[in-house]
Amino acid sequence: MAMRKFQILDTPNALATDPPDAQRQRAKALIGGSIEKRRAHGTPSPLKGRYVVDPIFRVQDEDLLRAYCDPTDKRRLVVEIGFQLGRFVAGYCALHPDERFLGFEVRRKFCEEADEWLQQHGVENAVLALVDAREMLPRVLVPGTLDELFVFFPDPWWKLRHVKKRLISPEFVADAAGWLRDGGRLLLKTDVSDYADWAEEEFRRQPAFEVTRLQDPSAGLPPTLRERRCGLRGEPTWAVQAIRRPRIEHP
């Protein structure tokens, strides 16, 4: 992995074009395409499980997510984008049973395997959604109500033509600043040093965030499966956090 070239865009905002073209480019960045197109032309997946929902093809599941994110619920709301096999979900929920955990993943196999793992560990406070979080969160989340947003070991999308698919982008960071409550945290972990640099720079471009490269790459959280593997191989990982600054109240 260390030998692969991490591509950097020529401009800090690849989508800084006219609005129609920006919308097309943003749609291309989504994994699987837009919700509307998939509902119109896609085929529902035979998704099964106790914790997993399919808000793309089951509208009632989108309603379920909206209710789960209800801002009148006093429990903290935590979102993880890309939970993979759910090992972190189970560990985190065991330590924080009084919080709401919402995970997003775009691969059905991971959703079903994570669901089995959560059932084995008796998790009671998690929901897993088979959908790109970038498109679903604006539909179900009231701005300024999210407590923490975890992005752990996202796909680096090494090839230049795939850079647009990277989760960390100016648009995503701006969205995250809108989703998080004052004092809320966006936390990224990665085992690609250039991705950590890329993410830190994008975080710092957003004035709503106070950004820190953490000395403890675990950030004091249960390890993900990827972290365990990196530890066994003696490979380093990095963590970058962005804390939402207080919003300015205008008279």
Explain what the structure shows.
By secondary structure, the protein is an alpha/beta fold. Mean pLDDT is 90; it is low at 11-17. It has helices spanning 19-29, 35-41, 59-68, 87-95, 108-120, 133-140, 170-179, 193-205, 225-233; strands at 52-53, 77-81, 100-105, 126-130, 146-152, 180-190, 209-213, 238-244. The N and C termini lie far apart (52 Å). The chain has a single domain, classed as Vaccinia Virus protein VP39 (Rossmann fold), CATH 3.40.50.150. An eight-stranded mixed beta sheet has the order 1-4-3-2-5-6-8-7, sandwiched between helices.
Would you spell out the secondary-structure blueprint of this structure?
Blueprint: H1 19-29, H2 35-41, E1 52-53, H3 59-68, E2 77-81, H4 87-95, E3 100-105, H5 108-120, E4 126-130, H6 133-140, E5 146-152, H7 170-179, E6 180-190, H8 193-205, E7 209-213, H9 225-233, E8 238-244
Parallel strand pairs: 1-4, 2-3, 2-5, 3-4, 5-6
Antiparallel strand pairs: 6-8, 7-8
